[in-house]
Amino acid sequence: MVATLILVCMPAAVEVTVAPDQPIPFVYCDDPLILEFSSDKDVQITGTLKFSPAQSGDQAESTITPFHVYANSSYWYVVEKPPQNRGYYKLEINLACNGEAYKKETSFCRIDRPASLQHAPLYAHCGGDSRTSILTAAKSVGIETIHLMASSEYLNALTDEASLLGLHLILGMSPEQLQQRPDYLAQVIEARCENIVRFEINCSGIEQECATLIDAFRQNECPAGMALTVPDAKYFSQLMTQSPNLSPKHVSLTADPWPDKSEVYRIRYVAAQYGIEGLQVHVANPLWYPRPGQTASTFLQHFFEYRSAGASHVGLNASVFADDMGVQEMLAFLNGLALHFSGQTYVGDCVATAQVRAPLFRNGANWLAVVWSKKKGDSATLQVSGATNLELYDAFGNLLELDTSTENNVKIDCGPVPVYLKGTGGALLGDAAANELKAQVRYFMAQAELVQNLQPPLVDLVQKAASESGSSSGRLRFLELMSAFPGLEEQWHTRQVPKHIIGPAIMLISEMAKTMAILEEDRGELFMDPLRDTLSQTEESQSLYLTGSAGTAKSRERGDWILSEVRRLVEEAELLEQAERKIEAGAIAALAEARGLCLKSAAQADVPQETPEILPQPEVPPAVTEGEVQEGEPVQEGESTLLEEKAEEKPKEKAEPQPASRITPAVKEKQPEEKTESVENEPEEGVHVVVSGDNPYNIAKKYKIKLDDLLRWNNLTKKTTIHIGQKLIVQGEPAE
After folding, report:
1. 275-288: b or e for each residue (b if 16 or more CB lie within 10 Å)?
2. What is the CATH classification number for the domain harbouring 30?
């Protein structure tokens, strides 16, 4: 896919190739720009070159020193003083060939050598493309993983080339391929299993047998990871209900157009309702291509939005950065991304206006603020007091001038194309964490099911977490939340509270705790227990679990995941200590200790083979939306209120004012009318009519009877599905 131009200069035909030493037209920043000229006849060539960078109006010209090309041979011409900045360039070539004039346009990118780049959390969808040069283009900008459809007729050639380049593979499979496992696919999988990081499985139409088919495939074909491909959270919830034995570790949220980032939150929440914490959500739009008038930088906005919502990897159409016409502007944007982003952890949004987004990511004390605006010519002011090593880069990775004339603030010019502000420490990290903690608390409080079913002291503690963070009582609130983890885990496994309540609660509180740990560092008060003592206690919990856990792999799933999370937190605490963030390290160690104490309950848990029908199908949490704020105020996402709406639905109850929710309600589906039966249809005494959202546990709790009695009176088991409109006896003789 080298950009070759055939310039018909009478009476000769001259070919011009940009960057002939590369498979596609890109030039490394430390390399000269070379043009290759070839001709079928002897020809004298001179002319000019005009360079136009894509993101600015600054053009540059270079005069071609006359040279001679002999017939049926080539000549490599080194361009004098070409543009040195990274980026995407349009090149206008004006030639005089033996006195005949000719003009042609092409394009190329200036990028960094792969050794200078980090491995960005991206993967490229290659679709049915047969060009192996796309794989080279992906590799050149730090993309280490490519997605191929198992049905591609070029599967063998592409997997062979990917293996030679050291690329990892994702194979997308249809329901029919999962069921039939065709011979050609089995041969590819056998040859490339070690290169496959995961399969992406479409279970549409085979939902009920999907778990069985996946297990059989992994045992017989390849033990690589399995991701469920879903278009939205609603389908994921339905899939988990219809195939109760599914225990996915990955979900691929694949849709066109790009899904809202709220879908990532919703999928993670649904997974937690089924007891799956730590689910990796990947987001992809294999069909996306910039519309006319739309810049490729739109993808960068999507990427950082998804990362801020907790997405692991983002997939894009490979044709966006390299196609039949040569390289595209996206290649230069991906180069800039790989220079500065390698999977840093999202902290929160910085100070911003309604038009501006400024999510902040960090690795230890080093942070990256990504700033963009919906409109051109905008600006944002960020508080950076105490920060060091401040640097500003454009989206291609070029260093920009940063105004640091004021001690505590920097003003950044921004527009739809993001810019990257990098620094170490300072107030910005804590400000972003404080904004995120408020958003996390609003999200928790908006989940009516959690608020209504968890112990009121815990709900009150969560509500206070944001308002008291950074104060002297912030440490106390943090430690109280840590002490809640073992009790929540025990309530789950002893079935005092259903897992569809406890699972999301543990996940959300854990995320709050990590945010509060950053704020503890800002407070500057050391923990009383030395870090090493806390980590030692954590090791004791791990050891007791490893020596005492038994049972099937299924029964150990929860405990094994907690064990891996504890180890990850211990490693994070040690890295923070090395980064001189000793207080935050102590807080993360305390979280590791608290999660480690949960191993006792997880190890002793009896995991029955129950279908989730005895629980209500989890309701997908309402969508996260961005709210408008005044300039200079912290970003507050979605100031509309689920709790306020519920207060309006019950006017007879005097509701206390509640904090604004992080989220706004999704469009409500029409609910069955059984909830509002007329007086004439009122059920007889001692009988309950099942309505939407009912389950045996909640019914027993409502009538203050034992669950076992309710099941016995109605000839039910814990695996029985109850239906809307069904009548259940709720009075009778209790069991002795």
Report:
1. bbbebbbbbbbbeb
2. 2.60.40.2550
User: Is omega for the bond preceding 66 within 30 degrees of 0, making it cis?
Assistant: no
Strand bridging mode 100-111 / 87-97: antiparallel
Q: Is the residue at 734 inside a domain?
A: no
Q: Same domain for 33 and 140? A: no
SS3 39: strand
What single-letter DSSP state applies at residue 216? Answer: H
CA 579 – CA 207 distance, rounded (Å): 47
Query: What is the residue whose two structure tokens read 């903690």?
Result: 437
Residues 118 and 105 in one domain: no
Percentage helix, strand, coil for the chain under 3-state DSSP, each rounded to 5: 40, 25, 40
Contact status, residue 607 vs residue 653, Cβ threshold 8 Å: no
User: What value, to the nearest 5°, has the Cα angle with vertex 482 and ends 467 and 360?
Assistant: 55
| DSSP-assigned states of every residue in 401-423 | -----SSSEEEEEE-SS-EEEEE
Q: Which residues of 698-719 are buried (b: 16+ CB within 10 A; e: fewer)?
A: ebbeeeebebebbbbbbebebe
> What is the rounded CA–CA span in Å between residue 352 and residue 371?
9
CB 446 within 8 A of CB 642: yes
Name 532's Cβ contacts closer than 8 Å, sequence gap at least 6: none
Which residue type does 586 have?
G
119 and 79 in a single domain? The answer is no
Q: Which two tokens stand for residue 39?
A: 């001709």
What's the CATH code of the domain at 689?
Answer: 3.10.350.10
Residue 294 belongs to a domain with what CATH number? 3.20.20.60
Question: What pLDDT does residue 692 have?
Answer: 62
Based on the fold, state whether residues 300 and 246 are members of the same structural domain. yes
657 token code pair: 């004012």
What radius of gyration, in Å, describes the C-alpha atoms of the chain? 30
Which H or E run includes 451? helix 448-453
Residue with tokens 């569809």: 500
pLDDT along the chain (736 residues), means of 10: 53 83 90 93 94 85 94 94 93 90 90 91 84 86 94 90 94 94 90 95 94 90 94 93 90 96 94 94 94 86 96 94 76 95 92 85 95 92 93 96 86 95 94 94 91 94 86 87 96 91 96 95 84 87 82 82 95 93 94 94 66 43 42 34 35 35 35 37 73 74 84 77 79 67
User: Do 122 and 58 share a domain, yes or no?
Assistant: no
Of 111, 144, 178, the last residue of a domain is 111
Looking at the structure of the chain, the number of domains it has is 4
Provide the whole-model pTM.
0.82
Between CA 603 and CA 216 the distance in angstroms is 27
pLDDT of residue 735: 62
Token pair of 704 as six digits: 């203050």
**Considering the domain boundaries, does residue 646 fall inside one?**
no
Pairing of strands 314-317, 280-285: parallel
Neighbours of 647 (CB within 10 A): 16
Rounded distance, CA 61 to CA 48, Å? 7
A 10 A CB-CB count for 15 gives 15
Distance CA 220, CA 216 (A): 6
Is the distance from CB of 382 to CB of 421 less than 8 angstroms?
yes
Domain end point (choices 591, 614, 637)? 614
What range defines the domain where residue 694 resides? 682-729
Q: What distance in Å separates the CA atoms of residue 29 and residue 448, rounded to the nearest whole number?
A: 55
- Please name the amino acid found at residue 562: I
**Separation CA 440–CA 463 (nearest Å):** 10
Q: Are 315 and 122 in contact (CB under 8 A)?
A: yes
